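User
Please review the sequence:
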Amino acid sequence: MRWLGGDESDNVEDRRGSGGGGLLVGGGIGTVVIAIIVMLLGGDPSEVLNRSSPDQATSEAPSGPQADDDAAHFTRKVLASTEKVWTKLFAEQGAQYQKPVLVMFRGVTSSGCGTAQEAMGPFYCPVDQKVYIDLSFYDELAQRFQAPGDFAMSYVVAHEIGHHVQKQLGIMDKTDAMRQHMSEREYNRVSVRLELQADFFAGVWAHHAQGQSIAIDENDVESALTAANAIGDDKIQEQTQGRVVPDAFTHGSSAQRVYWFKKGLKTGDINQGDTFNSREDANL
């Protein structure tokens, strides 16, 4: 992946080195296991933290901002690119895109959805409408998930921005309202469609950014597809449980995530991403 220009977004809170008070809040072995799964899926940390017990363990937060300056500049560039694309697409629909804030941190920090920890991976908090990312996740993406490359990292950021787009369009508020009247199994299905749409929106961003702010080739696309494939619910369950339980899916299968990202990348048409009513991925 090659940048066509060096614009960086200013809508960033850099909390690296702040230490977040130096405390990591844990809730026992069960919470740790769940937190690991949430990290792998890229999920909302409040689902874990708000149910955890108040046991505490002290941990010294990493303080090396210099070590990941390149990752910080890279993240700012990706954010700037998403801002340009979504501002334009919203304007074409007669709407105004409200740019989110991206919070970079190391170790632990606070969010509107609860305490954010390194183990949870990148996430979007709809309460404060901010994206949170511990920059060490980029190393995790390359080493644990075997998805190195700038475009794979861009996909991760663009997916979380996709959730902000859903918030702006009112989609996230509607699904939250549905949650009150559903069983956990029923809402899991809704959650899957929400996540797949965020994958689609990540593809839409890449479609419009190509040739404007980024230049990508087949190898770049492959790295993003590898990332999408690696964090599917089926792959994660197989790794952590040794078996696949579709009713417990919250993010979609690997094949579904790849499908919707590719569709967004190919079409660039936001109107083709109604994952809630479409069943074109039913057999994946």
